[in-house]
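Section 4.2 – Deliverable D4.2 (structural model, holo form)

The reporting period included a commitment to supply a predicted holo structure for the target in complex with adenosine-5'-diphosphate. Inputs used:
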Amino acid sequence: MSVRLKLIITYFILILLSLVLLISGMIRTTRQMAEDFAESVLAEKSIEDVATAALNTLVDIEYILRHEPALFNDENHMMSVEENVDGMNMALFVESDDVFVYNSHVRSDIKLSTFVDGLDFQNGHGGDTSDSFQSADYSNEDHYYMVLRRDVSTEDQEGFLYFVYEAESKNAMHWSVYGGMYRLIVVILILIVVSMTVMITRLVIKPLNKLEEATDEIRQGNLDFSVKTSRKDEFGRVMNAFDTMRGELKHSIDQQMLYEENRKELIASISHDLKTPITSIKGYVEGIRDGVASDEEKMDKYLEVIYHKSNDLDKLIDDLFLFSKLDLNRLPFDFKTVSAKRFFEDSGDEIRMDATKQGFEVNFSNALSEEMTLCVDQQQFKRVITNIVSNAVKYSLDKKKIDIAVTASESMITMAIRDYGKGIEAEALERIFEKFYRVDQARNMDIGGSGLGLAIAKQIINRHEGSIRAESVLGKGTTIYIEIGRADINHE
Ligand code: ADP
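Output (structure tokens):
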């Protein structure tokens, strides 16, 4: 059974219950009205007066019934009998053998004979005896009557004495107001049920339907939708949690696809990069075998090329191995806190030694102070510097100069390595830290670029929780900035 159906059934049960309660309340109200009325009658006279009046009336009537029934036709006599109860808002009627032998003189407007047959007399408090009064209610549009009946039958004839009380107009008003209220309450109940159904549908059913549709979408593999809502209630929270889950699922699937794509690209790049030097080596070896390298000079040249290509191959495999270990987070880092000034001094010396051998002028400035420390894996960090400097050498033009400046800010240390080489165009600049990216594919292969140097540098710097970026002007040179947090400063 659906929630909607359950709710509708619950509402209808509620309505039925309310109606039953309402109607039983109204019945009680009707009785209450009669009692109130009787009380109001009694209130005007003392109980003794009423008892005396009733007794006198009964005695008179029984006397007439038994001894002088003809007196019923005596208007004046009956009027004197009715006078006993005058002032109590009562009307007297006498019925003998189904004929009304006396109709109230005081309330001649009440035509008891016209509605007495439809009355349903109930026994009063005196029990089911012929001496007790029976009562019945009667109402029409304008009046409400309470009729009390006493059996005054004799052996010869059947007789009834009636006292008829008319409710005050206020009570009659109540009755019609209750009738109107009854209809109003039913309308209000229906309105409540309808509006609650609409509200529940909007609040509960709709979000549930939306979630059901969303799960269908996910089952079919579509994650490009949103069930996000600004609602703050329980359903809003469930929908937003669902949407977050969808977002994370999508992210992880996208990530997986990206990894898969990367893996394919990596395999293609590796195959290509290995193939090129091997093809070249094979060509030269075949040349030697076929006797193309006929003289010693040619032979030396061939062997020299084979040697260089093998070195490139060796370096490429080393870089690949290192990169994949970094990529898979399998390269153990040996972090140590060292003096920043000393570390960069040492690195500067090493760079100067290597670069000057290749005809480069190295300007090194170190603005660090003694107390500054760094938490680094010295070997890996130096590899980063070596890769950058070797690029500065590889991609240099005529001006063989490298400027290195190490500066410190409040919490960071920055190393800037500047060359005066060919520079990198803006579009390519964004991609130089990607694996296997080379600005000039063909030329770089010739000068032994694996396309992994800066990708490796970035991975290592990331492990140091630092950052690396490049600035370059085409034809003028490139500057690579490495930034790393100082260990002597609390970074929290
Ligand atoms: P490679 O081993 O090919 O040098 P890198 O990852 O070190 O690979 O560099 C990626 C690419 O960025 C290089 O192929 C080169 O085109 C470009 N590049 C890097 N450094 C410089 C530089 N200092 N000057 C000019 N181009 C550079």
